[in-house]
Amino acid sequence: MTSSSAPRMHTYRRTSSPRSPTSTGELFTPAHEENVRFIHDTWLCVLRDIKSLQNGERGPQEYVEKNPNPHLHSFTPFDLGDLKKRNTESS
């Protein structure tokens, strides 16, 4: 196992692809879709880097609050798109 003392540098490149149709009829601008795709692809790179780190290597680090907000203790993540879909169907 070899390890280098130099930090790894990543260059994340924006990609573009054809617009995907939405089932809800919402129209997103090409810039919006490009930004979402960029964030998604970059996040996948971060997750891959976290999993591939070897002992002693420095890389992405997960932020954990030292004093978590007690009001958020029972918070569970949810899909905003699904929530919006349910709200528009019930209207």
Automatic annotation (TrEMBL):
<protein>
    <submittedName>
        <fullName>Mapk-regulated corepressor-interacting protein 1-like</fullName>
    </submittedName>
</protein>
<feature type="compositionally biased region" description="Low complexity">
    <location>
        <begin position="14"/>
        <end position="24"/>
    </location>
</feature>
<dbReference type="GO" id="GO:0010494">
    <property type="term" value="C:cytoplasmic stress granule"/>
</dbReference>
<dbReference type="InterPro" id="IPR029428">
    <property type="entry name" value="MCRIP"/>
</dbReference>
<feature type="region of interest" description="Disordered">
    <location>
        <begin position="1"/>
        <end position="27"/>
    </location>
</feature>
<comment type="similarity">
    <text>Belongs to the MCRIP family.</text>
</comment>
<keyword id="KW-0539">Nucleus</keyword>
<keyword id="KW-0963">Cytoplasm</keyword>
<dbReference type="GO" id="GO:0005634">
    <property type="term" value="C:nucleus"/>
</dbReference>
<feature type="region of interest" description="Disordered">
    <location>
        <begin position="56"/>
        <end position="91"/>
    </location>
</feature>
<feature type="compositionally biased region" description="Basic and acidic residues">
    <location>
        <begin position="81"/>
        <end position="91"/>
    </location>
</feature>
<dbReference type="Pfam" id="PF14799">
    <property type="entry name" value="FAM195"/>
</dbReference>
